Amino acid sequence: MSESAPQEEPKRAQENGKEDKERNQEGSEAEEPIQYSQSMSDSSAVGTCSNVTGAAANKKSQDLNLENQPKLSTRSEKESKTRVSKNVVFRKPAKVIFNLDQTAQDSNLEQPWKKNLLERVQARAQAMHQKIIDKENLKKEVEKKAEEKLPRDNLAKEWFNTENMALSTRAYLLDKLLPTLVPGMERMLMQVEKKKLLAGVDIPTKFDPINHLGEYLMRNNPKYIKDSGLSGYQRVMRDISEDLKIYVPNTTYNRVSKIKENIKQKREQKEYINDVKAKVANARKQALQEQFNEWILDPKGMIPMVVIQNVLHEFFRNPDLQLETCCLPVDIADSTKPRLNKTEFTQLVSLHIAGFKSETFEKLLKHLCHCADEFREIIKTDMRRQMFAELFLHCDRGKVGFLDRQRTLALLETFYDQSSKVLRGILRNPRQWPFVEFGEIDLPEFWGDMDNQKHIYEDFDNVLLETDTLPSEKHVSKTQSKLSASSEDQHEHYRESSLPQSPPEQQRGATVEQGPNGISTREQEQPEESTGEQELNEESVSKKGTYTGSTPEQRPSRELITEQRPHHEPITEQGVPQGTHIESTAEQGLPEESITTEGQHEGSTTGQGSHGKSTEEQGSLRESQSDLEQPGEIMAGQEAHRESQSDQGPHRGSTAEPQSPRETIPEEQQDTDFTSQLSKGSIVGESKTSRESISFEHTEIPPQEERTQGQPYEELLFISPELQEKTGVSSPEDHLSEPAKKEVEKDKSCEPKSQKIEGKSWTGELLTCNWNMQYAKHEDEEQANLIYGNSRFADLHSIIRNIQSYKETKGRSAFNGVSFNLLQFVQLLETFVGEDSPLSVSEALTSFFKKGFVETKEEKMSGLEKARQNASQIQRELLLKALFQKWDSDGSGFLDLKEVDELLYTYKEGMEKESMKKAKLHVQFPKLHPGHEVRLSCKQFQKYIELVVSELRGNEEEVLESVVEFLMNSLERSHVESLRNCARQKWLHQIQRAAETSGVSLEPVYTETFKALTQDAEAHGNKKISAHISLLEENLLLPDRGNVLLRNVACTLDDAPFVLKRVLYRDMKGISFTVVDEGKPIHVPQVQHHGNIYFWNHSRKKSDHSGSFLALPLQDAYMRIFGVLAVDTLRDPQKINIFLPHEIRFYQGVANVFSTAYHYVHSREHILHIVITGIGWLYNITPSITAISTYFVEPNSEKDSDYVLRNMMVTGLQGLTEIHKNPPVVFRKTCIFRDFLFKCTDSSEVVLASVCGENHIVVPLRERTGEALGVLDVNIGKRKMLLYREFKDLQKMLKVIQLACSEILGELSGEIKKNYMLEIENVGEVQRAGILFFRVMLRELQECLGLLTSSDFVSLLLYDYDPLAEDEAPPDSQSQDLKANIKLVQDILKAIIVFFHPKLQSSDLESWDCCKLYVNQQLVENICDFDPTAMELEVNLELIVEYVEDHSRIEVWKFGNAAIEYLYHWAHICLALIKLNKKISGAIISPPLPSKTDSYVYAKMPEGSLPGK
What we know:
Helix content is 51%, strand content 7%.
């Protein structure tokens, strides 16, 4: 290849030279002298002794002449290149360096003759150019003087006519004939007049006008007479001729004129566009400057740049807008220190939106306004978290870094119990999950408790169920309204239909249960009502009670237009206003934004006080909305709202944002002092400011507490004037007239937002981005620094530094169930108070904790001792790990126990030998290797040394340090060995890191493995190696050739055509199966002399079969062989290329690390499989979940940086799970507005968050150490919380997933033994992961059923039909419910019986008395031991499905019996396992990962195998 390239280059140069030569021959005469000079210079350059010098000088002359003669220099440059390129050797001589002195080269370039020639050429060219200019100027002066002498005769303009018929003829005559003919005619007429030939007609004359005219034309022929002078008439005629030529088609003048016209139009259009762009840019800048005032600013009037970058990043990633390809990428800053003022803010945003359309810019403004409100919430949350962090430091008086978990939960329970009922509607119950862990809940309570009162929100289900009758009554009222003739009859009819048919409490406070799409569940089943019917219906509903229907502000991609109808006026009874019903109408075509008359509203009562937004925030929100929506819609919505507001009393609302529930129901006088303190602190008087999530609260009002219209203002809870101004509490003076209210709202909408949050100013400090880095305590780094300061371990310092640098995933806290660190404590309290609570609640909780959190002296001492032991354990692990790496200088990953004992027995000259032998009695050593040696891994070595130290006399820490120092000094390692060890440890770490950052893919692991092998062979062995990895598979196609085979799954690049995807059977040559059987490496120094080596490359000659071959076993945590790593030197040109002992040991270390990385990736694959199965189970019984996203934690590629999250898959509304091939990475710095994912990962606790009107339940997937390995983000849409039934089902799914994940991780790491409970688990690891979720849930249900007593089943047998009572009693709702319950119980029990008696038919089970005989203790035992995947199992699936499929999950829940709940789930889980067992060879439980050709893949569990909705 190197020789062919120089031969081709001269040919190209010659061809280019010929082309340039042909072009040069076409030059004009004016350029000939210049070309001659250039040729002289070129020839001189070629004639010199150095072609390099000539070409360089020629190039310099061209550069100097470039300014005055651009065309000339271009041509000379081409010629010079052509001449020099003919020399093959020096293609580009100026770039060739001969190691000469630079001053000598410069002197050679500056030759005198070259300089003189250049000066002469330049002078001549300038003279010629100046001559041409002078000639043109002289010509212009002459024409100007001629015009002064002879004025223009405009009579010639009459010749200008653009008629198409004679256009070309007229243009020809004007150009060729008329300029001479017209003056000739004029001369001829003048001559006729002079001779007075016209006066006497009959006078004979010799004058012939024709001859005279002919003579004139011949004498003045323009072809022979030059510059005879033009008259004024001719001059104008010449201009007319030039203008007329433009209109002659298909001429040069016509084409040129069209080109000029097009250029002119384009120039004007461009100037117009530039003017418009400038105006638009100025208008946008002005709009952005006004929008800047919406943000809350630091004391210097600036905002962190990273916040605005996050806003733009989130807007650009909106899939509905598709802006990622046309926008500049946003490089988000890593720190919050860079700040932006108004001008910088405008410039930054304008830089990224230069090409936006007006619609997109309006959407951006809306997004900015929305994010400004969200940022206020972030600052508020930051204040709250800072408050809780200071509380932790105050309570942690011993500075141990953790607080007792049970004491913290007990204080939260006390605070919750002592709070008012209204406040408890905001707080979350600390006795329920997520405050209580799954393991702390008894199995019967977890699986069988169906008490709705135990919801995380107090009376959440009751509120929804009480108001569930409103949509049905509304439908009845609508139907009856159609029959009414007049409005009076309609009002009377609705007055009668709205009579109380339920307790008064249900009439005064009401909400409506929402479906999954944000509308009421009953309205989903009904057709949409017309506008008139809705208006009539609203009047009837307004009498039932006081509730406000409002639609939360939408996501950035979907906007709701609130249309509050102007005729909504409260209908009062007995002078007391019952309230109003404000209906919100959304844009059509969106399922989540259809008409929501009662689906999204907030409970309120007649005596409600202020529980809404502050005045400043309301005004700012109205301002942001008024800037974005159409004026007509704004005015319509505001006018209707003002009309309804005028009679509402204290109730106030905003058309731009929904309000939180506003309840000011006075508590009884018997409330504790704590409750009164909370009410005085205006805990109830504040609510969220910009959250769109709907708060559902309900408070029962006794009849004697009813108030008149004026009483609510007199009996409000006491609120200080400052907080009253902050929270926007209305007063009697607020009830202004309609015009006055309009003016007030107009003025408020123009005012900028308040720079205070609930009366508190922002300090400018934003801890959201680096919260965990600032408050997370890294004990290992502190202990490492202590070791660095100890000179006794100087030899270990560099190793410990490498160990610390390799620890990539930082910032995660491990959950231990006993204590909280600072991050976990802050997150727990934030979850307790919620995001919507005012800061006064957090202040009250903080003061309560400071008074109530008291530790005894013993507890303080115990905490200090625990912290000291923890620090000592971390320091011990660092020392022993560094000692192990120094000892294992070759990176093999193990130490020989004999070698360790020999060195240990020399400690103190053998005086402690007997004590050390006693320690070996308590050690459980691993299995013996084939060479009868015991190998210790790093963890086993640490345990062994700790046990030895525990048997020695003296202080344990001092003894350990002494032993480590002794071993460290006894190990003699040269500097070369230390460097080699450091490099190998780095390569081994890169293999493991590739697995952690691969996104559940083995390809990076294979790449880094081969990279480590080749780098070590080149650096430490001076070899060129080839390698491949083969894994064991079951031989299903050709079992005669062996029950297993080895398939090559990866290899080095050069061997891919011969090795990749090839299969090695047992009956073929090779030593790989010998390695598999014996479990030890085999080294063949010379393969040409070994008769049992299989060569994959058959095209290689036998004479080339020289080299070494090494095969190493790949073992899992249980020492089982799952593959072979093979390395050879067949491609090495050296004759002697055997593997040295230190190389073989390193390759063993590579095989060990690869095995760990391989199982790490597979553990993540299995976890994804488990999660998909669990989500499929949940989606079939929980319709209210919008989406579930799964994330994995990965180390960041940047050094000393935070971890990142990788979005592995997303499950949508239809239950389809989209698994990404290249999962996107989420950084903390890009999630300022969505940091709940990182909060969950930091603390390893559940987080409840609300973002963009959608509520999220974020749950960590924990490792066995307690740290979060992943996150499940459950999006429940616009609902505040799931129903208790759905909430419990979500808990069941999460618990089973966590148990299954813990089992998978423990098995792959070797911590626990594999537990095969079902026969299907023996099929394979992938199939086992697919059914592990169902197996764990089945085991949980079997344990619950085993705890049931006989009385539980006896109560079920009492459900029987009474035909006599059924005939006598008329059918009513109660009897129908009883009949449905009886059918439910009997069908479930019959299905269970059929599982164990498959020969029974439906006719055999018609008699309930016969069925009772099968329900006994033996049945329960069979249920607890049942294996639905057994091979000999016979099941009548059709009959079981017939009994079970007619009963929904809701029906079983409403029945409320624990035994039926267990049996129902047990039956469906068994059915799912039976169906999966039958389809085990299909794709149902294959690994749910995309192939190389897919960008994503969809996975979904079969609906028939899971419970119905």
